[in-house]
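Let us practice reading a record.
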Amino acid sequence: VAYGKISLSSAASTFLIYSLGLGMMTGILSLRIFGNERIIFWREAAAGAGMGLSPLYYFIGKNIVEVPRLFMLTSVITICFYPQVEPLCNIEKFLVYAFVMGFNMSGWAQLVSICFSKSQAQLVMVMLSLVCMLYAGVRSPLSSMGSVPYALSWISPNRWMIESLFLCQAHQLGPVFRLPPSWYNQKSDGSLVMSLVALSYNEI
């Protein structure tokens, strides 16, 4: 069995910090995708302008152009973070999960840049990143959330990336670490095997 630098018990908190940094960076840097060109778009897409600009094709084109930039950005963040933590999840999967979350936060940033002015958009994006972190299900477990916070957790990209990385981490551990609690908590029977299993689990 291979063991990474981070333990299973601290993995969720570690991935939470990573998701916060990744979300803020990709979100704030993506505010310029539509925010800086709002007036230009209105002018060229206006009726009678003669430009024939399709809003749908404009939106798709802008997102396609942003894919390489987002991939490079998430790759740089991941390459800096991954060796410091040494998770069991291989770096290819780590990069995929990071890119999907970065693309998701980029979408939120595009919406924010359309709905708010340039001076307000950065503050709103920071607040949105913090809200996504709060409802990721790490500090406050999903089982203890009310109906509204639980509904908000479904639109939090942090939650889905953390869950994916945590499952990837857990799947690389030995079968002892994936046993149900009712099995490894039975220390009272005096079994040497059970004691070793319980000790191994408590050292995660």
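A brief commentary: The CA atoms of residues 19 and 158 lie 6 Å apart.
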